[in-house]
Amino acid sequence: MMKLRSKRFCTASTFRFPSFVTSCNKKIKVADDDHRNHAVPLSEIKWELRPGGMLVQRREIPAPPTFTQDQTITVRVSTVSQFHDIFVQPTSTFGELKMILSMVTGLEAREQRLLFKGKERDDCEYLHMVGVGDKDKVLLLEDPAITERKLHGMAASQPISV
């Protein structure tokens, strides 16, 4: 019977390459964005050992964009028949965007439904956290339930003439 050593306590910093890899001074080919191959020395590549024991190349995750207080973005809000370009700070919420749109369109904020990337967004969600950037499109729809209530209220208030 053969005993296997567990790699559970092995981390990326304690991992050592096998002797045939460290003694090799060759360069490996890596494809870049332009689909041209260029040689990269093996020592420049950062490696990471995953918990399952798989050795993979470490990825660098870019930091999210930071916004200044004075910066504004343009959001194109589209209705069925028209569109409006709204200038707003990226750190504002969809509720604040609805308040601005209520002044422009005449619809109250509770009558509006805002959709971004195919999903209806809540009033408390921030624009920059959802991914709304400069010149992105947001769809404005009138809430059908409130429109129906308005129609029923108008029909109930009018007398029926025979």
From TrEMBL:
Looking at the record, the residues that make up the Ubiquitin-like domain are 71-141
Pfam families annotated for this entry? Answer: ubiquitin
Superkingdom of this entry's organism? Eukaryota
**InterPro entries associated with the record:** Ubiquitin-like_dom, Ubiquitin-like_domsf
Q: What is this protein called?
A: BAG family molecular chaperone regulator 4-like
Provenance organism: Cucurbita maxima
